[in-house]
Amino acid sequence: MSSHKSGFIAIVGRPNVGKSTLLNALIGEKVSIISPKPQTTRNRIMGVYTQKDYQMIFVDTPGMHKGKDLLNKSIDKLAVSSIKDVDMVLFVVDNPKGEAEDIIIQYFRGSKIPVFLVINKIDELKNRSEIDEVIISYLGSHEYEGVFPISAKDHTHLDKLVETLIPYLPEGPLYFPEEMKSDQSEYQIMSELIREKILYHTEQEVPHSVAVVIESIEENEELNTLDVSALIIVERATQKQILIGKNGDKIKKIGTEARKEINSLLNTKIHLTLWVKIKKDWRNRPSDLKAFGYGEDS
Ligand SMILES: Nc1nc2c(ncn2[C@@H]2O[C@H](COP(=O)(O)OP(=O)(O)OP(=O)(O)O)[C@@H](O)[C@H]2O)c(=O)[nH]1
Ligand SMILES: [Mg+2]
Fold first, then answer.
1. Does 50 share its domain with 112?
2. Nearest CA to ligand 1 atom 3
3. For a tag site, which of 57, 172, 200, 223 has the least CB within 10 Å?
């Protein structure tokens, strides 16, 4: 009988290249939120893919960039440290190599961990020569174990990618129960989905100034629902105004969209109440970062 294989595979890259979209597509379930805005992912999020003979644990990471505040510095540190503790790395790109990619590639140097170059969003490229142009720009930058042009959005060439990774998995146990798809708790899934809707409905600095904390989840036996109360933290009064919107329209919309998705993802009926609170400069205060779920061991 062949032995069981398992391993951890980090998904790294610049913000907005489609890392979380790729994670969700590989797992077949939404475990990591997605948005058109850079710096959507703030934590390390694991997605589990279990087959008969092997288990792959994909680790979505925040896009690496040189952020200035404490939140972004700690996020960047987390992404960098993710590369060290894994069996393989998927380096996701969507453009010819630039300065941001050069910085990331430096972290691969001197490490023996196999790195696969994943060129995402090929659905946006018009012809083969555009893909070649991207591939050529990365030639010589690192010894990649393989190069995969894919579309995470359309699920193009993902089977081939997974198949290629199997031989690189070390022998190992089932780290997670077969039916488990993610390491995220219900609290984390709920707060992230609320944050995702905020990302879609706000602009400029607001999305980056927001944290979401689930205050309480209580069973309502009468209505057979879960009563969820969530706190949205912003940095300034103007941001609070923007978030609430005229006559509370915006916060209502955010709440409705988040509730619908939480209902269907967690397969439970929830009643969601959102509160907005101002916490000046929370992104630079270590105690706040910890309280809102950010930092090394979150
Ligand atoms: N056309 C196209 N768009 C994609 C594809 N994959 C992701 N996107 C889009 O790219 C944007 C960013 O996707 P994310 O998955 O949030 O990117 P990310 O790399 O996780 O971003 P951060 O968490 O900010 O680092 C979203 O608007 C996605 O819909 C793809 O294969 N094709
Ligand atoms: Mg992401």
1. yes
2. 121
3. 223
